[in-house]
């Protein structure tokens, strides 16, 4: 039975990945989820799996060398899937330090612990041990013209403290692969959306605000473009890269689903109105009057777009969920989990929101 060490599994993509993996492999695998439970981590995201015998949660900081090494000493880890990170660009603009600490130094701790546990005396590595570093397309910078795409060979050009910290962590992983032949892969994925996303990111924030009749803040002219991928497709891509990809390679994950932010907001408004029953009171206030153009994000990247050619050709992965379907699944999930959203958006979130959007 393979044992996975998943970092950041209580966050958005990590929790979706854990759900995906248990759906796919059921009791054939064991998952240990290590998470510090920052504001972005929520064990309620894992309610469905918490009682499984082949699942264990450990609350720890990936920067804590001792705690991470202990996990490797006590368990024969076969796969590391490293999600844990500070992940929100706006927060990185206000407070970059924690991004460098978690994303760069935390990744270094993970690399060292895995290397220590997996390395033989002669410098080779034990068979079938693999580390997958989950990264972002934002490391490639910003595209200005239609028809340009990010390839695995696109030079890194990060602009925000978030993307700079992710780029640094990618470089560390590359250096371990190059220097030690450390058995790893890197995936650089485009913007994800779907269940369990924290409502500081565009799509859940718009759904949540629209349902409450609050303003929908659009940065700048609303024409910045992101390439949106349904989170389960990302989870599947990660698993396929780890099992079928060539070691030491980087794979871009994403899928030609570029949309301007304002388009996304309009689609959400239309879909909400279609999905809510006719007698739902909220239908009265869900319309374009809620849209409010606000000051642009500092250093706002204009356009991201992934060319997924390599992962498609080598591994056979492609995005399966059309945006029209994915957004309906996402909105349905938010309808069905209103209480969870209520819990998440009380307390600290209110403080964050007031400061961010004052
Ligand atoms: P998230 O913010 O929802 O979750 C991050 C998780 O990491 C949380 O559970 C948090 O508690 C945990 N964490 C943070 N600091 C930690 C620490 N020091 N020690 C242990 N755990 C810690 O993030 P997400 O959107 O799920 O992103 C996961 C990964 O995927 C990140 O590495 C991110 O860079 C990458 N990524 C995200 C997207 C996206 O669209 N969200 C796209 C591409 C890549
Ligand atoms: P976000 O979800 O924060 O992801 P990222 O910045 O990592 O791409 O933002 C997606 C896009 O939406 C980005 O261009 C910024 C924009 N945006 C808004 O216009 N208003 C908002 O309130 C937020 C959170 C984002």
Which features does this protein show?
358 residues, alpha/beta, 7-stranded parallel β-sheet, 12 helices, 13 strands, 42% helix, binds nicotinamide-adenine-dinucleotide, binds thymidine-5'-diphosphate
Describe this structure in words.
Helix content is 42%, strand content 16%. The protein has helices at 12-25, 65-74, 89-94, 97-118, 161-180, 202-212, 231-244, 261-275, 309-315, 323-336, 338-344, 348-357; strands at 2-7, 29-35, 55-59, 79-82, 130-136, 184-189, 192-193, 216-219, 225-227, 229-230, 250-253, 258-260, 291-294. The strands form four sheets. Strands 3-2-1-4-5-6-11 form a seven-stranded parallel beta sheet, sandwiched between helices. Strands 7-10 form a two-stranded parallel ribbon. The chain is globular. The site of thymidine-5'-diphosphate has 12 residues, from helix 6 and strand 8.
Task: Describe, in short, the structure shown.
It contains twelve helices and 13 strands.
Q: Strand order of the main beta sheet, please?
A: 3-2-1-4-5-6-11
Unreliable segments (pLDDT under 50, ≥5 consecutive)? none
Helix content: 40-55%
Intertermini distance: 51 Å
Shape: globular
**How many beta strands in the DSSP annotation?**
13
Q: How would you characterize the largest beta sheet?
A: 7 strands, parallel
What radius of gyration results from the CA coordinates?
A: 20 Å
Order of helices and strands: EHEEHEHHEHEEHEEEHEEHEHHHH
Small-molecule binders here are: nicotinamide-adenine-dinucleotide, thymidine-5'-diphosphate
What's the tally of helices?
A: 12
Q: Helix/strand-derived class?
A: alpha/beta
Please, what is the average pLDDT? 97
Beta percentage is: 15-25%
């Amino acid at each position: 039975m393979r044992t996975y060490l998943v970092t950041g599994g209580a966050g958005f993509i990590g929790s979706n990945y854990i759900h995906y993996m248990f759906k796919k492999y059921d009791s054939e695998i064991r998952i240990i989820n290590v998470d510090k439970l920052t504001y972005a981590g929520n064990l309620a995201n894992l309610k469905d799996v918490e009682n499984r015998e082949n699942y264990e949660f450990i609350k720890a900081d990936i920067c804590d060398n001792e705690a991470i090494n202990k996990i490797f000493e006590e368990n024969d880890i076969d796969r590391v899937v490293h999600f844990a990170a500070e992940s929100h660009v706006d927060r990185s603009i206000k407070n970059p330090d924690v991004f460098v600490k978690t994303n760069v130094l935390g990744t270094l701790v993970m690399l060292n612990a895995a290397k220590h546990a997996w390395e033989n005396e002669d410098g080779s590595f034990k068979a079938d041990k693999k580390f997958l570093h989950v990264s972002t397309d934002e490391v490639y910078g910003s595209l200005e013209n239609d028809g340009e795409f990010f390839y695995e060979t696109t030079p890194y050009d990060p602009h925000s403290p978030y993307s700079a910290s992710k780029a640094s962590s990618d470089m560390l992983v590359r250096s371990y692969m190059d220097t030690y032949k450390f058995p790893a892969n890197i995936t650089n994925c485009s913007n994800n959306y779907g269940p369990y996303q924290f409502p500081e990111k565009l799509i859940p924030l718009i759904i949540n605000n629209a349902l409450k009749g609050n303003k929908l803040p659009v940065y700048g002219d609303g024409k910045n473009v992101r390439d949106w991928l349904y989170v389960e497709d990302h989870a599947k891509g990660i698993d396929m890269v780890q099992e079928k990809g060539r070691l030491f390679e980087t794979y871009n994950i994403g899928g030609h689903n570029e949309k301007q932010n304002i388009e996304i907001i309009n689609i959400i408004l239309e879909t909400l109105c279609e999905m809510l029953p006719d007698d739902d009171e909220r239908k009265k206030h869900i319309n374009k009057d809620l849209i409010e153009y606000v000051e642009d994000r500092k250093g706002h990247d204009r356009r991201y777009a992934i060319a997924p050619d390599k992962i498609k050709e080598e591994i056979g992965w492609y995005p399966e969920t059309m945006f029209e379907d994915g957004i309906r699944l996402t909105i349905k999930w938010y309808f069905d989990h209103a209480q969870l959203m209520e819990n998440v958006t009380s307390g600290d979130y209110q403080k964050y929101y007031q400061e961010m959007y004052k």
